[in-house]
């Protein structure tokens, strides 16, 4: 497997390496970083393929090579590599180009207006595909909407079969050994396909930022920050992915988001000698690199960040408040800040714990007037 990362911090290698180790003995993973695989790293791809050729000829047969490019790559220059280099062409042939399509978001990316001269990578990836995997069909529940997406895809590429999927679950024979790449058809579509001197231009407003920090994150702080980020900037966030070390949890937290859709889960445990680190990558349009970095640093599990958050609260320990218990407003006193009790999910962090006047203890899930408000002063009035 050859994996291309768009950004300076590798995420997929950490996720795939363990999975490959557990499933296929002797399988190798090559990761290529920094730069577009269809531009600056194309020479590196050739080097990796030639290295695999030597492995194959040394008595360790290779059945297939899977190249996973970034979503920002133009597939044409990648495919060129198998035809313009005689050594590679004598070793392997291009079986097919498989494009994974996000059914929920593809239309907005196909319609996106690019700067003059810049390619729309989404259109290029659909056009050059030998097979289209229409993924995330569960997020488009209406059949007519899915058919509309398929119609749009066929208007760009009428040859590639479309396979529907959810969570990328497809039969291996749908993506491997398909024998679908047709050089003649490709040259008819793009007569300059074999011209290695040709240039193409990417959208310079699209960039990535990678963050790699040792230590733990507070999942409650991170979840709150990410919720606001996706709400306000989700349209420009093409992809977020990462592996986090979460305070108080022995397992790795793996998450990814596409625009405003987010998913995170705990996976295998951190190794005994493995440093607990937080790695994450943002890919999107008009990214505020400094703002994203400082925003994430504010989620780290340290006293400075906890103190900063406490100062933003409306109330502090000792304040008289009224809490909405569901059965009405009940008076009490704030006795703790940033409360989390045993058994709570690590992503939950209550701003207040309150001791009610009747002696009960509750927590307030949010620092909002609908949950907790300042207590109204009680005054006595002498009867006339």
Write up this protein.
The chain has eleven helices and 16 strands. By secondary structure, it is α/β, with parallel strands linked by helices.
Keywords summarizing the entry:
16 strands, alpha/beta, 384 residues, elongated, 5-stranded antiparallel β-sheet, disordered N terminus
Biggest sheet layout: 5 strands, antiparallel
Q: List the secondary-structure elements in sequence, H or E.
A: EHEHEHHEHHEHEHEHEEEEHHEEEEE
Contiguous helical run count = 11
How confident is the prediction overall: mean pLDDT? 84
Strand order of the largest sheet: 7-11-8-9-10
Binned, the helix content reads: 25-40%
Report the C-alpha radius of gyration, rounded: 26 Å
Question: Structural class, from helix and strand content?
Answer: alpha/beta
Strand content bin = 15-25%
Shape: elongated
Instruction: Note poorly predicted spans.
Output: 3-7, 19-26
Let me know the number of strands: 16
Instruction: Give the N-terminus to C-terminus distance in angstroms.
Output: 88 Å
